[in-house]
């Protein structure tokens, strides 16, 4: 649980400032669960430059509560939370100082979004909240007011969590559950989980991610993991110490995010997907006069036009495509398939095999086949539903290469390539990612296809 905080002060000497306004948004990693915003009477003068910057003056604060009157509410809303702030050292120091004046030792863990931004947004030149919001397309009204700044800090934190592909935020700050094996423990885990689509991470006592799952209903899938008796579930039930999740929104984004993070984090219980989801590939050998279709186990040093989960599916696909494009499969490494798979050969397949044609004609058909399995444009966006109402997901392909995904709310946030890249969670192109994207393109399981 997080508490996104912003504080406005009177200004003045170090540790002599007083709070004039405070805004807190309690956030569970998915949605705002509580919020508190109030002007605060600091019982001291506000520096002139601060009045000009924030618009807050002594007249506005005359009837505002003093800090001791809101202190209990601040303690309650930040209890068991990690404080998130832009320049957290300042906000946390001022907050601790105010509590110290009341004789209360206020202690919380903190995360600074400036520090995170420098690590996860290295291309940015300036890390002020206003500049980051402008460059990332985050709407920003009521600047230098606590509620406005806190709302933008929350949006920035959401984006940074998405960009944290290595899941360091989760590893370092996920709440540890009590180490017992009782059913009550599982109920506590399940109670915190959403029923939305996304990725969930199961960590052991050493903060190692042991399993990354995807689901249209995260809660339902974790319940299954904690109640099933198969080998994987029993290991999870024995080792689980921490749990976290990431709401994704779109189905394609969920698939792409899971396969990417499995390859990066290499969880023990995702062994079958650590390397490739689709291990069988079809490539073209153009070193021969008649370009050959090669079906084989995927190798790192070759480019494949399509990949499949097993040889049976790959063979079936090629037989259908060969029939569609009139390609002679004698120019392949599996020309004997005709007899073994006669039940899936189209009526004119035998005629195609028997025809004689020039290498030029044959190679042209191979090229057409390759184009049919490629992306529709060199640069394009696919859009899906986002994580919440009013938000959308984009998947970027640039120069025929998958680049990653991101979130947006307004069309102007993805108007230019620089804006798109600034919101992008980068991922590497691989055969699995291309297969997933192409399958969604073929089935038209997206909101919009935008040619850039």
Task: Write a structural description.
It is a single chain. The protein has 452 residues and is an alpha+beta fold. It has four domains: 2-163, Nucleotidyltransferase, domain 5 (2-Layer Sandwich); 168-273, GIY-YIG endonuclease; 280-372, no CATH class; 380-451. 39% of the residues lie in helices and 21% in strands. The chain has helices at residues 48-54, 58-61, 67-78, 88-101, 113-120, 129-136, 146-163, 168-173, 183-191, 218-227, 231-239, 251-265, 311-325, 337-340, 349-354, 359-372, 417-422, 431-443, and strands at residues 2-9, 19-27, 32-39, 82-85, 110-112, 198-203, 209-215, 242-247, 280-285, 292-297, 306-308, 380-385, 392-398, 401-408, 425-426, 448-451. The strands form four sheets. A five-stranded mixed sheet has the order 3-2-1-4-5, sandwiched between helices. A five-stranded antiparallel sheet has the order 15-14-13-12-16. Strands 7-6-8 form a three-stranded antiparallel sheet, sandwiched between helices. Helix 5 (113-120) packs parallel to helix 7. The longest helix has 18 residues, at 146-163. The protein is elongated. It starts with a strand and ends with a strand. The model is unreliable at 175-182 and 337-354 (pLDDT under 50).
Topology overview:
Elements: E1 2-9, E2 19-27, E3 32-39, H1 48-54, H2 58-61, H3 67-78, E4 82-85, H4 88-101, E5 110-112, H5 113-120, H6 129-136, H7 146-163, H8 168-173, H9 183-191, E6 198-203, E7 209-215, H10 218-227, H11 231-239, E8 242-247, H12 251-265, E9 280-285, E10 292-297, E11 306-308, H13 311-325, H14 337-340, H15 349-354, H16 359-372, E12 380-385, E13 392-398, E14 401-408, H17 417-422, E15 425-426, H18 431-443, E16 448-451
Parallel strand pairs: 1-4, 4-5
Antiparallel strand pairs: 1-2, 2-3, 6-7, 6-8, 9-10, 9-11, 12-13, 12-16, 13-14, 14-15
């Amino acid at each position: 649980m997080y508490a996104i905080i912003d504080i406005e002060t009177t200004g003045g000497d170090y540790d002599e400032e007083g709070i004039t306004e405070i805004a807190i948004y309690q956030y569970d990693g998915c949605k705002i669960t509580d919020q508190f915003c109030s002007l605060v009477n600091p019982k001291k003068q506000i520096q002139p430059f601060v009045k000009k910057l924030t618009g807050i003056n002594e007249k506005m604060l005359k009837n505002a509560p003093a800090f001791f009157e809101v202190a209990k509410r601040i303690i309650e809303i930040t209890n068991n939370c990690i404080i998130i702030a832009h320049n957290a050292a300042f906000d946390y120091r001022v907050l601790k100082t105010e509590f110290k004046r009341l004789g209360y030792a206020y202690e919380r863990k903190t995360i600074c979004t400036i520090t995170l931004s420098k690590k996860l947004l290295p291309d940015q030149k300036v890390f002020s909240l206003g500049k980051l919001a402008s460059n990332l397309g985050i709407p920003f009204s009521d600047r230098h007011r606590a509620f406005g700044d806190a709302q933008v800090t929350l949006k920035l934190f959401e984006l940074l969590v998405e960009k944290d592909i290595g899941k360091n935020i989760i590893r370092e700050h996920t709440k540890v559950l009590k180490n017992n094996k009782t059913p009550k423990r599982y109920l506590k885990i399940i109670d915190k989980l959403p029923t939305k689509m996304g990725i969930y991470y199961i960590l052991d006592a050493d903060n190692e991610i042991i399993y990354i799952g995807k689901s249209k209903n995260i809660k339902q899938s974790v319940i299954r993991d904690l109640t099933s008796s198969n080998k994987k579930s029993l290991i999870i039930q024995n080792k689980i110490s921490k749990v976290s999740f990431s709401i994704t929104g779109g189905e394609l984004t969920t698939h792409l995010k899971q396969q990417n993070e499995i390859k990066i984090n290499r969880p023990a219980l995702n062994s079958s997907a650590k390397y490739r989801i689709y291990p069988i590939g079809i490539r073209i050998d153009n070193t021969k006069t008649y370009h050959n279709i090669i079906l084989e186990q995927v190798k790192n040093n070759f480019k494949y036009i399509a990949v499949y989960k097993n040889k049976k599916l790959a063979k079936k696909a090629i037989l259908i495509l060969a029939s569609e494009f009139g390609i002679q499969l004698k120019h392949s490494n599996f020309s004997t398939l005709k007899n073994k798979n006669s039940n899936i050969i189209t009526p004119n397949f035998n005629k195609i095999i028997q025809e004689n044609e020039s290498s030029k004609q044959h190679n042209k058909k191979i090229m057409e086949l390759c184009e049919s399995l490629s992306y529709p444009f060199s640069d394009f966006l696919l859009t899906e539903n986002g994580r919440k109402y009013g938000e959308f997901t984009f998947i970027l392909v640039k120069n025929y290469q998958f680049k990653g995904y991101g979130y947006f709310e307004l069309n102007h946030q993805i108007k230019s390539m620089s804006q798109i890249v600034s919101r992008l969670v980068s991922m590497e192109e691989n055969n699995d990612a291309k297969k997933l994207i192409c399958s969604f393109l073929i089935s038209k399981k997206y909101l919009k296809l935008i040619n850039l």
